[in-house]
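Before going further, learn to read the protein records used in this course. Taken together, the tokens spell out the fold as the letters spell out the chain. A record is reproduced here so that you can trace the correspondence yourselves:

***
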Amino acid sequence: MQHRLARHRRSAGFTLIELLVVISIIALLISILLPALGAARDTARRLQNNTQLRGIHQGLFAQSQDNKGWYAGIDGSGLVYGDRDASFLHRDDIDPDKLQTMGFVDSVGASVPARWFVLVDGGFVTPEYLVSPGEINENVEPLDIDALEPSNRLGPNVTIASYALPMLTEATNGGPPAEGRCNEWRDTVSSTVPVVSDRLLQTGGVLADTPSTHESLWTEGEWTGGVTFNDGHVSTQQSSELEPGIRMAGSTSTANDNIFHDNSDSAHGNLANNDPTTGTLRRDHSVAMVARAFANGYWLAPGP
């Protein structure tokens, strides 16, 4: 009897080998599940990111209904080509106590921070919606409108958004409105005109017309990200070059258009003009997304 009890006690526990086998199985399961969980997390963040991109476009569309169809930054009276000050919101129209002129003097509405300001200040988007769920720059914080005052106005280098908007002027300070992009900066409901996208990361040797030098919040060594078009649909692009077919102001691209084209290269990433007999490339018809504006005009300066 005692012998049977002793044998029963010995069989009730795990041997060292059995314990090691269980630990090995658990470790194997973890090694299999962790990548899947990471991929699921990344997918969820990308879906949320695309939701925010779509929400920004919806905010632009809602704002345009009170601005004669024009998106934030353009004056409701419309464009006056060659006269930037007459085309974009005046600094006094936006609240000069909260927003710096950023080198645009009266036509401050052409700047990227001013357009974000108009959307947030009017309640068309929440400040949190401008920050991507994939953001890696700790300095990017939601815009606090109430904290802005004359001594602490919103400036060109304040990081309040993770997303890029199209350039609305020529690359150099003092240039006129960019006709092609400005004509599309309104509720055209076009399925081929980019309106807002994931931004470009600041990396060594960024070249506007060379996709291999581009990176995004989501990938290293290449740019992949969300792009919202003017009809509201969001597309996850695998490159910063969009295929031919992008349309600007009545012109359709015949070559790939680089969305981060810096407007200085007349031979790459542009759309042909309306004249089919000349085939002239016009820089003001390229997409030319910029992540933010600097004080002396627009630069390809995506930030960290």
The radius of gyration is 26 Å. Residues 262-284, 293-304 have pLDDT under 50 and may be disordered.
